[in-house]
Amino acid sequence: MTNHDYRQRHTVWWSAGAASTVAGMLYLRDNPNADVTFIYTDPGGEHEDNVRFRKDVEQWLGIKIVVMKSDKYVDQWDVFEKTGWLVGPSGTRCTVELKKKLRQAYEDPDDLQVFGYTAEEQKRADRFRNANPDVRLVTPLIDHGVTKPQCLGVLQTAGIALPAAYLPPYKLPNANCIGCPHGGMGYWNQIRIVRPDVFDRMAKLERKLGVAVCRSGGVAVFLDELDPKRGNLLKEPTIECGPLCIPEDGDTEIELAAPAQLTLGWNVQNNNTPDGQ
Length: 277
Fold this sequence. Notes:
Blueprint: E1 9-13, H1 18-30, E2 35-41, H2 49-61, E3 65-68, H3 76-83, H4 93-106, E4 112-114, H5 122-131, E5 136-138, H6 140-143, H7 148-158, H8 185-194, H9 196-209, E6 214-216, E7 219-221
Parallel strand pairs: 1-2, 1-4, 2-3, 4-5
Antiparallel strand pairs: 6-7
């Protein structure tokens, strides 16, 4: 390929959530002439409303999100069963198989890769850069000082209904797979209420594999022994299912932001046009 033929690839790794959506919106606004591709690595276990959300985002931003899916595993449960791996200090096998390997198969060393790290997640972005020095990581939300609550507010302002996983009865802090192995005790007690079938399935799988997803003081707590009153979902570390899936100690509580708290310059009435363009 000659230099004349070369065109820089810009990849937004969209994860069916508020943060990656606003990160992509900002990147489009700041790079109006770039060749930007939105890619979603579908893990197969997320709430079905994420399909509706994806279509709403496509219409709002005037883009088409490319969907990639593993040809080896159906969903996270399939990974757990076939590999015998649930969760460990280094992360989860499901993230590696259903997301990371797909990204690595697609990426090129010259790509500019956009991730939805929020302003609260500088440490996570730093960890990713240190672990992946070959990846040209771009973090629009950190660069603009945009927080997770502000991302939620942007979508409210745009009139886009948040993914069902964020809303009652789920009230989860993300739109990841329902029943994430990185969830804490508060998370799993919420799943016990809204999706007892998922809770029971994970409890049985824990015993089968001999691994507990929850710990307290370094001691394993199996779900079939978990006190329904233990944990606080709002105060537990947020769950990341993306470039790195390990929770960050010290993450703060996530609350819904008022729509008026943030203006990022995207003209909502004129769907696909950044203000001033």
